[in-house]
Amino acid sequence: MIRAMTKQDFREFWPVFKDVILQQETYAFDPQMDENRAYQIWCEEPIKAFVYEDNGQVMGSYYLKANAMGPSDHICNCGYMVSPQARGKGVARKLCEHSQQQALLLGFRAMQFNSVVSSNQIAVALWEKLGYEIIGTIPKAYRHPHLGLIDSYIMYKWLE
């Protein structure tokens, strides 16, 4: 069900990706980004990108990349997106669990999420259930389209 993402997979997933960035509720991505730039950010710049597929349909995806270089290159970062029809079905959990396994296989020892929007309570609760801690709050870090300036969290988990 979870495998490396291909360019064709991304093309199929693009409407979901575009909708997420247009909503401007969870990702600090340019809402005017085109498909080519989105592919570059999600699939080419990270070390790996994966897709969750069910019955031949892309239901979610994540990327995995180093969070920093040099003496901090043992900490990785991931981003996750799930299609609306897959929400509430455990897809994000499966993607996160898979990403932790992949991170360890790639030699990472910890995972850090740099900006989890505080209003994304479902994601915050899931990450906490999976062992991530809020280690910092960035005040007024996100311009939410309905709530105005809200906080973002830095979340972290030691993987070993």
Structure explained in plain terms:
InterPro entries: Acyl_CoA_acyltransferase, GNAT_dom, Mito_N-acetyltransferase. Residues 1-160 form the N-acetyltransferase domain. This is GNAT family N-acetyltransferase. By secondary structure, the protein is of the alpha+beta class. The longest helix is centred in the first third of the chain and has 17 residues, at 7-23. The radius of gyration is 15 Å and the shape is globular. The protein has helices spanning 7-23, 35-44, 91-105, 121-129, and strands at residues 2-4, 48-54, 57-66, 75-82, 110-117, 133-144, 148-158. The protein has a 7-stranded mixed beta sheet, sandwiched between helices. The protein has 4 helices and 7 strands. The protein has a single domain (2-158), classed as Gcn5-related N-acetyltransferase (GNAT) (Aminopeptidase).
